[in-house]
Specification:
Chain lengths: 100, 500
């Protein structure tokens, strides 16, 4: 199964990655080839197979609910491209053209 | 003196303990070789010369005053640049996205190395966010294979592998999501081990695919790899998938391996079409060495092995698409300077910050998880993952471990596979199943091709069988008349270097 230009554009939008026109064509071709390859999984009958996300038995890990040392606000904000004294600074959220 | 760097980490420890050399001398030799050779190899993204020398001198003083020292005392170590270091060095993941990122904390494994008195000399190149098999996807340019500068070192831990192969450091850390420790170890003629999932804490490893990622040691000998594994293995509450069970004494576990009683499985699917004839021959010769010592060799089946690449590239990319959503130009990393509002800022920052392979994988993973495709792709891949795990469970009921090739070919030339991502993915065909099944896998050198390129033998075992794999690897090193890379000879680039 191939992937069309329009699907690449949709996936790029979902992925929040801006693509140039020529990149859409290239990724459509490359992703189509990869998807054709992974389609071989359909040769396998997996009707009675449970999906496996973790091969080792894992359970929720809990700890006592007591305060612990954590990063200071300055350390946590230290790599932010834009910040205020106590928070991350983001561009205007509303009125961005409705592309969300 | 550069000949100190011909020593293994274990030999360095003994030489320091006997007063024949010092940590300062070893670290200075390491930094000098990096300075002299790395312009041509490109193994390192950053080094910490002054700090490393100061740490080495502090360890020498502690030794002189008779203080107890840790198991890596004074040994130069390198770490892959997707491991967080709070020591002032950037943690870039070889991505424009993180080129200025300074981690506010260190990875668990980095803390362990420091606590063991190892001296971190620098951070190694990789494929961007560990996505690749050749280290060609680095925003800082590729690493070259010390055995042949026209060839890739493998990847994604290509910088770590090249640094060890060029004897810049005896020990390095890599990470392995689908073969990223074992495949570059094979291509560079060193030992690389991907431990059992959960054996080593992933705290502070920049996440690629969280159910597959595992940190492991790279070294010139199995004994050195065991030394570093012993330092980094063990429970850490900060990684919820970290295994509670304490690791064994790996030196004792290696000593307990009796090759004459070993049952070794050769997976039929690993010796079929696509395997280079020279690689096939070298791997079979290595397995024959075990047989001659009395090991029993049996053929086993891993019937779903041919589906591993397909399942892997859905599971790994799906997890990556979620993990890499954090790069939004808000909390850390690159933010596009020109944008029209918040969502446009996300999209432009990610377009500027990520390279093509990372974009491809995020989009493939997003597609596999998207409405209407989830069952057909992601869920299907998880079911096939179960079948692959079952294959290993059945095979490992019959034998103690499996042996086969790491990669269908020896190291390939630059640019050979960059145009066709699928061909690049297929170079991981023998390694990725271990990540899907969470079992440990090791690469140990087993010879060189007629072109002089190293080839690794892969060993796979049941969960927590690292000691068995390391012991069998050490036995092979000795049977081959040297330890690790030493039986292969030296990369020619070292002899061009002259005596310091």
């Amino acid at each position: 199964m191939g992937i069309q230009r329009s699907e690449v554009e949709k996936v790029a939008k979902l992925s929040r990655i801006a693509l140039r026109d020529d990149q859409v064509d290239l990724f459509a071709e490359q992703l189509s080839r990869i998807l054709n390859y992974v389609d071989q999984l359909n040769q396998l009958d997996t009707a009675d197979v449970e999906p496996l996300s973790h091969a080792l038995p894992v359970a929720n890990v809990f700890r006592e609910d007591v305060p612990q040392a954590s990063l200071t606000a300055d350390a946590a904000l230290g790599n932010a491209p834009a910040r205020t004294a106590a928070g991350f600074k983001v561009p205007r959220v509303l009125d961005d053209g409705g592309s969300a | 003196m550069s000949e100190w760097l011909d020593m293994t980490a274990c030999q360095m420890k003994a030489a320091m303990a006997a007063g024949r050399t010092s940590s300062r001398e070893l670290v200075a030799a390491s930094l000098a070789r990096i300075e002299r050779l790395d312009g041509r190899i490109g193994a390192f993204l950053s080094t910490r010369g002054e700090q490393a020398l100061a740490e080495a001198e502090a360890i020498d003083r502690r030794r002189a005053s008779g203080e107890p020292l840790g198991p890596l005392a004074g040994v130069p170590v390198a770490v892959k640049d997707n491991l967080c270091t709070a020591d002032g060095l950037a943690t870039t993941c070889a991505s424009r996205m993180l080129e200025n990122f300074r981690a506010p904390y260190s990875a668990h494994v980095v803390e362990r190395i420091v606590a063991a008195d190892g001296v971190i000399v620098g951070k190694c190149n990789l494929d961007e966010f560990a996505m690749g098999s050749s280290t060609e996807n680095s925003s800082s340019g590729p690493t070259r294979n010390p055995w042949s500068l026209d060839c890739v070192p493998g990847g994604s831990s290509g910088g770590s592998a090249a640094a060890v192969a060029a004897r810049m450091v005896p020990l390095a850390l890599g990470s392995d999501t689908g073969g990223s420790i074992r495949q570059p170890a094979s291509h560079c003629g060193i030992v690389g081990l991907k431990p059992t999932y959960g054996r080593v804490s992933r705290y502070g490893l920049v996440a690629f695919a969280s159910s597959l990622d595992q940190i492991g040691p790279m070294a010139r000998t199995a004994e050195d790899a065991a030394l570093l594994l012993g330092v980094i293995a063990g429970h850490d509450a900060r990684d919820a998938t970290s295994v509670a069970e304490a690791p064994p004494d790996y030196a004792a576990a290696m000593d307990a391996v009796d090759v004459s009683r070993l049952r070794i499985g050769m997976p039929r699917e690993y010796f079929g079409e696509g395997l280079d004839a020279e690689v096939d021959q070298l791997v079979r010769e290595a397995i024959r060495t075990f047989a001659e010592a009395g090991a029993e060799i049996v053929e086993v089946d891993l019937p779903h092995a041919p589906y591993a690449v397909a399942a892997y590239y859905l599971v790994a990319t799906a997890e990556a698409s979620s993990n890499l959503a954090r790069y939004d130009g808000v909390h850390y990393g690159r933010r596009a300077s020109e944008h029209a509002g918040l969502v446009d800022m996300y999209s432009r920052s990610r377009a500027e910050g990520f390279g093509d392979e990372v974009k491809r994988r995020i989009m493939l993973g997003t597609y596999a998880l998207s409405s209407g495709y989830y069952d057909a792709y992601y869920l299907k891949a998880l079911k096939v993952r179960r079948l692959i795990k079952r294959d290993f469970d059945r095979a490992l009921e019959q034998v103690d471990c499996l042996m086969g090739p790491i990669c269908p070919t020896a190291a390939f030339r630059f640019g050979e596979k960059t145009e066709d991502p699928l061909q690049m993915y297929l170079s991981d065909i023998y390694t990725i199943s271990a990540n899907l099944a969470t079992i440990p896998g090791l690469s140990v050198p087993c010879g060189r091709t007629s072109a002089g390129l190293p080839v690794g033998l892969q060993m796979l075992g049941d969960v927590f069988s690292e000691g068995l794999l390391l012991g069998a690897a050490r036995w092979l090193e000795r049977a081959r008349g040297g330890e690790g890379g030493d039986a292969l000879g030296r990369p020619a680039i070292l002899d061009e270097e002259g005596v310091a």
